[in-house]
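Cross-check.
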Amino acid sequence: MLSILQSVSYIIAQISAPTQTNPSGDSKIEVENWVRPQPGWLYVLDPKPNAGGSGGRVWLVDPETAKVMGSIRTGDNPDFALSPDGSRLYVASITEGDSSELAAIDTAQGVILQRGTIQDREVANVLPAFSAMAVSGDGLALRILLDTPKSSDADSFLLATFDTQRGEFLPRSVHLGNCGPGRFISYPTADQFDFLCPRTNRVRLISVDADSRELQNVDIVLPWERRVGAAEAIEPPGGQNIAIVRGDGGVVTMNVVTHEFADTSAHPLLPNRVLPAAWPISPDGGRLYLGYNSDYDRHYDNRFYLDYGRPPNLRPNDATAREFRVLDTHTWRKLGTIKTKMPFWSAVTGNDGKMLYAMAPQKHSILVIDTVKMGQIRILKVGGAPALALVAP
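Predicted model, tokenized:
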């Protein structure tokens, strides 16, 4: 088995001041200032806070007051994930070459509890449209996508597993083949998750044991051409269907038991495109907010994901959405359209579902949208290129 771990070490922070950190060696992740997060505050990933500079930031933002309440400095190509209870924020960024640092941060105190080093973490050369790391719904496991090249024309994608209770990486990894820079569809427990693979145009249904040994790793081919792409996939808790949003706006459901596909009332809407991103669903699961673009570059129209062996360009940095289409996830009928005053990249919903926060990295802003009135109500100026956001529970 290919080793995924160069070295893993962790240091328990023996400090009490909430604005201090526990730097280690060549660490690039440091908490610079911090206030205990309140429910509904945003953790904002900013890969390019300084024009032409190196490193990134994670900003802690109070969207009500439009104030930055905390800042975490990172290295290049940062990524992050939040535990379900909000007590731990996991931040990864490049240290040197193919090595990345992983830091586990106590969100209440703003201190780094653990640090580790991992090889071959999947990173994008463009703004991230979704995270390549996630914590299980039970909070027991953090999985991180790795790209471990076997040769110049073939890649092998793996999922490394960090045991959040023991504070160490498990020796086994989950194999994803030539999946490409995919993402989690559903991750309810440490031993079960479903994963979307854009390069192979497949969905993988995976279950593992406590040591991350694969018990099931089934891949199902999506019944359309790979060039159409998959913009989003959602799986309601306890349900038997995964709803997959095609790049052309059509929605198809897949039964996780029979692996059968069925069309819905959401049909393709060409020439509009739904860009691949972390498009949010309302807290009650009833509404899906999809970012559409009808003014896209036709050069990218027929190939969101490129051929085997070629570097996949999921989204050029200028491939932004111009409006939200709101779909009812029970009937898959359109509920409305939300126009914004500037193009956006990704979005999250607030805890109560009344607000939608859209990242606009080109404008150094976050758009605040009232989901009841279906309209933009204000703009938050944040950092250099806010790309992704997580909401404090």
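Confidence is low (pLDDT under 50) at residues 1-23, 301-313. The longest strand covers residues 141-151. Passed to J.P. for a second look.
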